[in-house]
Write a structure and sequence with these properties.
CATH class of chain A: Mainly Alpha
CATH class of chain B: Mainly Alpha
CATH topology of chain B: MetI-like fold
Structural class of chain A: mainly alpha
Structural class of chain B: mainly alpha
Largest sheet of chain A: none
CATH architecture of chain B: Orthogonal Bundle
Strand content of chain A: under 5%
Oligomer: heterodimer
Helix content of chain B: over 70%
Number of strands of chain A: 0
Radius of gyration of chain A: 27 Å
Order of helices and strands of chain A: HHHHHHHHHHH
Number of domains of chain A: 1
Number of strands of chain B: 0
Helix content of chain A: over 70%
CATH architecture of chain A: Orthogonal Bundle
Number of helices of chain B: 12
Number of helices of chain A: 11
Largest sheet of chain B: none
Distance between the termini of chain B: 62 Å
Largest interface: A-B, 60 and 63 residues
Radius of gyration of chain B: 26 Å
Number of domains of chain B: 1
């Protein structure tokens, strides 16, 4: 009988150096950041107790009678948001088609389009607004332009991702019966992405209302303008009222828009 | 026998009417908004401004770019990143209790509705206005920006976290409860381990958003690159303004790439 020594099975625990190294990096980044930005929780708390006076000047009570003056700028803010998302959505559609591989399968078209879209999305709306104010002067036109570009970036990014995720069967079916690009667009792509397209536009509108509320800070129209004025004159009860009004409006708009979006994309 | 007669359901007629109504409402809203547009033509100085912008774009402010003191661009960019990281970290932790309170399978139907409403309220409050309020509370500077991001991001993270919790496997939680685990044990042994990768991925996604937000916070005085940027634009210092914008674009793009790679590995 042959005898063979069977080696005992040794379980080797997976080395977790990499895991701990990653944890170390994360912790280092977080605490490094907190220290670099001079964030101290004790200071925040002490400052908070010192400044309750200011908060009470804002909200106890807010300048209720100022509400009438705030309604006009608020409506202007909403109009700016509507225009911004409308123009942005119209421009976004053809550009999203260029960026989507399912419509134009050409790296030299998709790549640069996406690159440009990414750049548009990194420029904050407030920066665009202040550049446009320098060209077109103070007023809501600069704000609408900024919001249009901002929503264009937002909508086209989400839209081209949706176009890439469509059911390709319909495109192939149309291809096989000899349809051209326009027919494919009309009968295969648009029917599939229309609900998402509308939903993204509404989403951009929601984001725009919030963005438009502060554009006035750089002189680009809307409720931010009276906000800045009230803050500059240290009329804190008015500041409180403006905050309450714009918050209420944003809350209602978000609620309505979200419920429409839920119905659109089920 | 009239078996060959099939009664097709009537076509819904009201839907067409509703569609037309919706079209009319949307179009009139857009026209009404166009009516408010106040276009006064370009400024008289616009030609000079645009020329200045192009000049500034072509001649970056190298001295500012390589200035490593507190007044230089590298410091401001690092501060912006630090604000984004710190704000995301704070909201990532603060969002967990909010998310638990909004999850149906943890606290029941009624409480979760209240929790969801609170999260919606937080999400809705514009973060720049929050930053402005916080500046008057803790003074201007990076801490105000960190707090603004930290509070505002709860709105999005709390929602995403609670959705992750609601869609997790409930069996583990029930198993722990059935052998007498208390609330804390259930939380740390059943809930958090299951949702940790998703939580991390959402938090990184929010970090990308916060990076963009942090770059505008400075416009209202809450620290970061925004303040030098708005000063440069107001002073028509286009060389400096466009140097900042270009560096900002590059930084945000790099951070997006890194964060996107990590997120792909996580989920």
């Amino acid at each position: 009988m042959t005898e063979f020594n069977q080696e005992p099975i040794v379980l080797i625990k997976p080395k977790r150096y990499k895991f701990w190294f990653n944890i170390f990096i994360f912790v280092f980044l977080i605490f490094g950041s907190l220290i670099f930005a001079k964030f101290s929780i004790i200071e925040v708390i002490t400052n908070f107790f010192q400044s309750t006076r200011l908060l009470s000047r804002m909200f106890l009570p807010p300048a209720w009678n100022y509400a009438d003056n705030a309604i006009g700028p608020l409506i202007e803010t909403i109009q700016m948001a509507i225009l911004g998302s409308f123009v942005g959505a119209i421009v976004a559609f053809p550009v999203a088609l260029l960026a989507a591989r399912t419509f134009i399968d050409n790296k030299f078209v998709n790549g640069p389009t996406r690159f440009i879209l990414n750049i548009f999305r990194t420029i904050p709306a407030l920066v665009l607004a202040s550049l446009f104010v320098a060209i077109f002067g103070i007023g809501n036109f600069a704000g609408v332009l900024a919001l249009s570009i901002f929503s264009f970036g937002l909508i086209s990014k989400m839209l081209y991702e949706s176009i890439e995720a469509i059911d390709l069967g319909q495109v192939e079916a149309l291809n096989s019966v000899g349809a051209n690009k326009l027919e494919i667009l009309r009968y295969a792509i648009i029917p599939q992405i229309l609900p998402q397209y509308l939903s993204y536009t509404l989403y951009a509108f929601e984001v725009n209302v919030r963005a438009a509320a502060v554009l006035g800070y750089v002189g680009a129209g809307g409720i931010g303008q009276i906000y800045e004025r009230a803050l500059a004159f240290r009329q804190f009860d008015r500041v409180g009222m403006i905050i309450i009004i714009s918050f209420g409006a944003v809350l209602i708009i978000d609620f309505v828009s979200t419920s429409i979006r839920k119905r659109l994309v089920r | 026998m009239n078996a060959n007669v099939i009664n097709l359901p009537k076509k819904p007629r009201e839907s067409k009417l509703r569609k037309t109504l919706i079209y009319i409402v949307v179009i009139s809203l857009i026209l009404w908004s166009f009516d408010s547009l106040n276009y006064q033509g370009v400024m008289i100085t616009a030609r000079g401004t645009i020329q200045g912008m192009i000049q500034g774009f072509l001649n970056p402010d190298i001295a500012y770019l390589t200035n490593t003191t507190v007044d230089g661009l590298p410091y401001a960019i690092l501060e912006t990143i630090a604000i984004a990281i710190s704000g995301t970290f704070i909201s990532g932790i603060l969002a967990i209790p909010f998310a638990l309170m909004a999850s149906r399978n943890i606290v029941g139907d009624r409480t979760s509705k209240v929790g969801k409403f609170i999260i919606t309220m937080i999400r809705t409050f514009p973060e720049l206005i929050l930053a402005l309020v916080l500046i008057s509370v803790v003074g201007p500077g990076a801490p105000a920006g960190i707090l603004a991001l930290g509070i505002h991001s709860i709105g999005m993270l709390g929602k995403l976290y609670s959705e992750a919790i609601e869609s997790m496997d409930i069996g583990v939680k029930e198993a722990l409860e059935s052998c007498g685990g208390n609330k804390m044990e259930v939380l740390f042994r059943a809930v958090l381990p299951q949702v940790a990768p998703e939580f991390l991925s959402y938090t990184l996604f929010r970090f990308e958003i916060n990076m963009r937000a942090a770059s505008t916070l400075g416009l209202v005085g809450a620290g970061g690159i925004g303040a030098p940027l708005i000063f440069a634009i107001r002073a028509r210092g286009w060389e400096r303004a466009f140097t900042i914008v270009i560096v900002l674009i590059i930084t945000v793009t790099i951070i997006d790439l890194i964060s996107g790679k990590i997120r792909k590995k996580l989920v």
